[in-house]
Design goal:
The complex is a heterodimer of chains A (about 300) and B (about 180).
Chain A (H helix, E strand, L loop, with lengths): L16 H17 L14 E6 L5 H12 L3 E6 L11 H9 L5 E6 L4 H8 L3 E7 L5 H15 L6 E5 L6 H12 L3 E5 L15 E3 L2 H7 L2 E4 L15 H8 L3 H6 L5 E3 L12 H4 L6 H20 L3
Chain B lengths: L3 E6 L1 H19 L5 E6 L3 H16 L4 E5 L30 E9 L3 H11 L6 E10 L11 E6 L5 E6 L1 H4 L3 E6 L1
Parallel strand pairs in B: 2-3, 2-4, 4-5, 5-6
Antiparallel strand pairs in B: 1-8, 7-8
Helix pairs in contact in B: 1-2
The chains are: A alpha/beta (about 300), B alpha/beta (about 180).
Chain lengths: ~300, ~180
């Protein structure tokens, strides 16, 4: 049995199905471990990991840090706001300085698409992409697919619709790659102004009607409107967006089946999803968060084996 | 590189050993009120299953049996070419204050047993841990670990490997010595 086919986790695009299945298999074990009284294993006690966050994050940063600590790795954190980046240092210089302090692995979030891949070509360390601009957020897609597998038994053959701001969403792109590699059918739903121009080249159908999309799907993954990445207005008003694309109890009731509701967070209650739904049994939002730690432990564990 | 095989134990002999080990366990653990069998993954579970069956056969005792995976507690992570992929840990009972009998097929360096004990202790504090192995490759220990119950002692060279095969996996119960 070989390990992962890749040395870094830069995006789901670069993984093969077997990689994803191996990550899931290992994550099953870690999920068991993080539910024990002693939630920690000594495996990575000789590894140091730097978390470099050039963009704000709460959940992902905490989740990575917990995953690292539960594997007994030493962890150093770095956020752009309090760093020399402000003093004009380049990305490669910043990272090389950190690596000079004998760091074995770098987990990085960066606002520029492709930042993780760029870094992997210029420095000698293992890189885990924790989100690069509007490009990919691989661990989020892995935990989303893992949560679907946990809830519905399998990902293969399931119908998943991703609703919302597809244009600015790295979660959407990573999810599309991941779900398709695992044999699920994927549709995207949202206003056409929030659809990337070439989305159909990914083999994904666009549905502009939320009702129709929900009637088709087994799982609905609701995305947030990424105001911080929007330079122009893509729709008239939040209110209008909510009316057309907000998930409410009313719409769910009108379907004559149960669907699984997911959200990668942060939630804007009352915008893309009503409070009622977010807190209902249909929603697996907090399961996603829990699984996030197990998935990140699995990714770090498997990549650390290659150091 | 050619492989040479030599059979050490056949089906009947394994069965005799399992019976003897079971009787030894009964001697020390009576009715197993407070004792549990835990097979070390991946191969110790088959020995544990045989012991469990034999106990039931000989004395009608239904002993609580689980399995423990040692992967994340091993000391050879990143020191091997292949990745260490975990197996399932199946402990749906508390080991707190229990007498635990760890079960494995072959005792060699003792490193797996060390890892299994560390893994076990993250689940609680057993009142004692004993070790039962089907085959003990004596004089080859890297750590000061010995088994309380041994099926058979064998003397081996470091370039030899002991393989325990089971009906349910390999189609036949036997123990062989493979020379590389």
């Amino acid at each position: 049995m070989k390990g992962l086919s890749t040395k870094h986790l830069l995006g789901i695009e670069y993984l093969v199905k077997e990689d994803i299945e191996m990550i899931f298999q290992v994550a099953d074990n870690f999920k068991d471990i993080i539910n024990r009284p002693i939630k920690k294993v000594p495996t990575l006690r000789d590894i140091t990991i730097a978390n470099l966050f050039f963009e704000n994050s709460t959940r992902t940063k905490l989740s990575f840090e917990l995953a690292e600590k539960r594997l007994s790795a030493d962890v150093v954190n770095f956020s752009a706001a309090s760093s020399s980046v402000k003093k004009g240092e380049t990305l490669i210089d910043t990272v090389n300085n950190i690596l000079a302090m004998k760091v074995d692995m770098v987990v990085m979030r960066h606002p520029s698409p492709g930042a993780a891949e760029f870094l992997s070509k210029h420095i000698d360390s293992v890189i885990v992409n924790a989100g690069d601009g509007t490009h990919e957020h691989p661990t989020q897609a892995l935990l989303d697919a893992y949560s679907i597998r946990e809830k519905l038994g399998d990902v293969k053959g399931k119908k998943v619709v991703i609703v919302g701001d597809i244009l600015h969403s790295r979660v959407a792109l990573s999810n599309i790659h991941c779900l398709q590699k695992l044999g699920a059918e994927v549709k995207v739903c949202g206003p056409l102004t929030l659809m990337p121009k070439y989305i159909e080249s990914l083999g994904v159908e666009v549905e502009i009607n939320l009702q129709k999309a929900l009637e088709w799907c087994d799982v609905a993954n609701m995305l947030r409107i990424q105001h911080e990445r929007q330079e122009i207005k893509h729709f008239p008003s939040i209110k209008e967006y909510t009316l057309q694309y907000g998930l409410t109890q009313e719409i769910l009731n009108s379907l004559n089946k149960e669907i699984v509701v997911m959200h990668p967070g942060p939630i804007n209650r009352g915008v893309e999803i009503s409070s009622e739904i977010a807190d209902s049994d249909n929603a697996i939002i907090l399961n996603q968060v829990e699984n996030g730690v197990a998935i990140r432990m699995a990714v770090i564990y498997l990549l650390a084996g290659k150091i | 590189m050619s492989l040479q095989e030599r059979e050490i134990l056949n089906k009947t002999e394994i069965n005799i050993l399992i019976s003897r080990l079971t009787r030894q366990l009964i001697e020390n653990h009576n009715l197993f009120h407070n004792s549990v069998l835990i097979g070390v993954q991946p191969r110790g579970i088959y020995v544990a299953n045989r012991l469990q069956q034999k106990l039931k056969e000989l004395s009608g005792i239904e002993v609580v049996t689980g399995s423990i995976d040692t992967t994340f507690f091993r000391d050879d992570f990143r020191r091997k070419e292949k990745p260490l992929l975990p197996s399932v840990t199946n402990l749906d009972f508390s080991i707190e204050d229990k007498k635990v009998i760890l079960v494995d097929d072959v005792l060699f360096s003792g490193r797996t047993v060390r890892a299994a004990m560390d893994a076990l202790l993250t689940y609680g504090r057993p009142s004692s841990i004993e070790l039962l192995v089907l085959v003990d490759r004596r004089f080859s220990r890297n750590l000061p670990i010995e088994a309380n119950y041994v099926g058979k002692y064998i003397d081996t060279l470091s370039n030899e490997r002991v393989e325990v095969m089971w009906q349910e996996i390999e189609g036949e119960d036997k123990v062989i010595l493979v020379k590389k």
